[in-house]
Batch of 3 targets.
Target 1
Amino acid sequence: MTPTMSPRLFSQKEVAQHCTKDSCWILLGTRVYDVTKFLRLHLGGEALILSRSGKDVSRFMDGPPHRHSENAWRWIEQYYIGDMDRNRAAETETLRKRRKTSENAEEKEQPSVTSHSRVDPETDLVDWQKPLAWQVGHLGEKYDAWVHQPVDRPLRFFQSSLMEAITKSTWYMVPLVWMPLVLYLSWYCYTSLAEEKTRIFLTSEYSVVVHQYSFPLLLLLGMFMWTFFEYCIHRFVFHMRPPANNYYLITLHFLLHGQHHKSPFDGSRLVFPPGLASPIVGGVYLFFTVTFPEGVSLCLFVGGLCGYVVYDLIHYYLHYGSPQKGSYMYRLKAYHVKHHFVHQRAGFGITTSLWDHPFNTVIPEEPSEQETQHSPPSSWFHFLFCLQ
Ligand code: HEM
Ligand SMILES: [Zn+2]
Ligand SMILES: [Zn+2]
């Protein structure tokens, strides 16, 4: 919406009509938002929003049950479609209050809405009509904050359609390309081990035969090794902090991972395109062959590749799936959504938060509803201490 256009006005009856999964509107004060597209993506579940359709959700945005992040407040602004018509609207409590005071006082009366910054696509530092790849490097020290303010829109990296196509992939291309290779190599490893010629040398003279039945174990070990690799690459490569004056490193960061933080629900760039992944997979294979004993290295590599496929699919699911509350997947989704929206310097594990523990990057647990309502004893100690 351009600043010169006056906002569309809706009557309360009109707003109330949009209360289904197919069309869901909510209010923040008198501002109207069409959140239909977001329902399925909401971490708290679609029911929490749907049950409040047509109503003012400002109170819920500040919790309980959850105090929403600054980014969640920004996010909602993308769905702004107009205002509730004060003349035609019924006398809601909010409106009655607002009519008593002057225009300036009105703004102060709704701190939960106005105190949060709003995203304005027109002033969002980049020109969205032009490809982003050559613009982001110029953001300099503003890049870090910009890239961690997510938006709900597809991104265009390059002018060339070919280049654009190379950087995109649908989720099912990952298992389609890599799983036949995993299956073939698994069969190859198993039959090679069955020949009982693969040995691990414990000393220069003493060696043990690697039996074919140890293959599942080696595969699982390879998958476990992947989880460590996943953590390291996400933390140390994808989340490297490019120097503000280095145009090329900022661009590289954006292409590798920054773009995913800027547009976390761009489905075409959620998994790594197999074409671009191939040389990396080849490099990892070489690394395994020089690091681990012959015969065993291939088994571990297959496990690692399998772990990678599982990781990419889980990551896709965490963005688009709606796992059941209380399930492992739900906990993973909550963890990953918080990595995107709130704690970008923590929560680097995707398929497991295991490696966040030894590296001290675990996202702190949110206090439960009861804990926020009834202050824990430590706060009372703190309170008494402060009084003295
Ligand atoms: C339509 C506007 C809304 C938007 C854009 C929104 C956005 C978000 C986002 C981005 C998160 C992830 C954490 C964060 O960034 O704070 C989140 C979590 C959550 N939201 Fe909302 N939300 C909305 C409305 C609501 C409403 C109306 C409720 C409840 C009455 C609600 C309850 C929750 C809960 C309980 C969580 C945390 C779930 C967990 O950690 O397991 N949200 N929301
Ligand atoms: Zn990340
Ligand atoms: Zn993600």
Target 2
Amino acid sequence: MIQLNGLTKRYGEVLAVDDLTFTVRPGLVTGFLGPNGAGKSTTMRMILGLDRPTSGSVTVNGRAYRDLPQPLREVGALLEAQAVHPHRSAYNHLRYLAQTNGIHDRRVAEVLDLVGLTEAAGRRAGVFSLGMSQRLGIAATLLGDPPVLLFDEPVNGLDPEGVLWIRTLMRGLAAEGRTVLVSSHLMGEMALTADRLVVIGKGKLIADAETATFTDTGEGVLVRTPEDVMFTRLLLLAGARVRAGLDGELIVTGLTAPDIGRLAATEGVPLFELAPRRTSLEEAFMELTRDSVEYGAAR
Ligand SMILES: Nc1ncnc2c1ncn2[C@@H]1O[C@H](COP(=O)(O)OP(=O)(O)OP(=O)(O)O)[C@@H](O)[C@H]1O
């Protein structure tokens, strides 16, 4: 569990993180979303004790990071810039981290296996592809078998296979009961991965809710029928509001999809399509953060 309480960070004139209060719960993947410059990395650095809050506080499992006796066993973090000695092999890199944190060498082979790098363990980390470096970074976060995991933009630059691998891994870690916080500026990707979404813009909390609430915005039901004129009349009589969509489809509000289906069946109206309309998550995100993008493309 991670708890933020009025967390604030000011760099001179810039209020990078502005009074953030939210809780990241165990057993779930929580997506931490915001446009570039929203304050995600700064927030993560404060969670990890790498940056000092101007005011407010943050705890991991009830304690400030600096008070954790064995941090690597409590929190694993993959930040954007990973420091890996380029001439050291993947195995030696992890063994060094394990030894300096009192973790048994045995765990090194285990985490290499977990991330699929057993075969590449003897190779120099400096020649790793981006995907392999990312796996090595994740192996390091898992070394101490921590109950809390932070990933800052973990899918940036990865190919589809790598993206899928990370998504599956994060879901698996949450299913084991761990607390997983993952930052991204890609709403679509987060929709597939996260159970909950915390959205920030210009350092401020914009939304904190289950992922489904962002997709299910009650935008009506899309209906396609060759009898559109007649069916529109019937729908209006049944108390619905109807407007024309693209290509002759009807957008119906005020009635549910099952209500509309039943009405069509009763009246013998053929339906070619009947689907609740969901605003895409990407649209919902743009809408939420419209006023809080630091540098808009049009400016
Ligand atoms: N060390 C620093 N000194 C001064 N300003 C900083 C510092 N670190 C971050 N900032 C500023 O704080 C704001 C938030 O930056 P941050 O990197 O946390 O955002 P982000 O949401 O992680 O963005 P991105 O997706 O681009 O990484 C930005 O305006 C940034 O320029």
Target 3
Amino acid sequence: MHPSHAPARPAVPPAPEPPAVEVVDLRRRYGAFEAVRGISFEVHPGEVLALLGVNGAGKTSALEVLEGLASPSGGSVRVLGRDPQHDRADVRRHLGVLLQHSGLPGDLTVAETVTTWARTLTDPRPVDEALAQVGLTGRADVRVRSLSGGERRRLDLTLALLGRPRVLVLDEPTTGLDPESRRTVWTLVRGLVDDGAAVVLTTHHLEEAEELADRIAVMRAGEIVLAGTREEIAETQPATIRFTLADDAPPLPAIPTVQVSAQRPAVELHTRALQPALTALLTWAAEHRVVLGGLQARSASLEQAFLAVAVADGDPAAA
Ligand SMILES: Nc1ncnc2c1ncn2[C@@H]1O[C@H](COP(=O)(O)OP(=O)(O)OP(=O)(O)O)[C@@H](O)[C@H]1O
């Protein structure tokens, strides 16, 4: 029997958190040219979305609408449920933005720049802590114009993170950074995401997308042509099996799903069903006592999938 006090409530699953960023059928034109042609995506708190695409695919044009710097010519964008342009004051305090090219005054020092920026924010991080996080403590008294390209990028990032943003929009955050600084940036961004921030970033470094992104959207000529997790995107391309085969080995069997792209001695096969294809191949080799020299089997990489879809035929502007 139930005890006399109030019965236990049935377990109600928690309501799903609304997306931090919601983009629906976004369009953006420059005169007659439509640079963004109806893209849609969501980013939830604690999630990183990477927008990939060749130069001119429309990534920056889309981000500028999220940042509240431009109006869409169609569709809608919501950041924390608000319009980033009309509700700019509300959105801005929760939004960290790293533009592709920042225009910081060159004659301020690093510390002066960060301190000045901190004064415009509601709850900034301590300046010393922020500089230490990106390894700029030793450059605090150096004028911005004297910084190296990588140091300047790390300063840009410091400013983007200074207000403890709930949404972070990063346009090519690690372009020009050395490998160690790039890893520092990844760690910083990951830390913010682990604390619940939502991140949208663009990058030309596929390993950056692999390292940071929970989901990836590939843009081509203003449209999203492929979207999903790294694994889902890689699976859109066939896997490769390679081995060498002696001249006196019997002919390879026809294996369903397998296409032969190079014949012996260096054989290359492609398949979208790697495990059954390998099983059939290894069974055949065992039955015929054939040695598959240097056997390799590999799923497609993100790079292969990207190259297969990202480059439009001809000029994207003409597409
Ligand atoms: N102010 C503008 N006026 C006219 N066309 C523009 C303008 N800004 C961008 N474009 C065009 O819009 C297209 C998309 O540009 P965008 O900068 O959004 O691409 P992207 O994917 O960010 O490229 P990248 O990787 O080179 O930064 C390009 O063809 C570009 O030339």
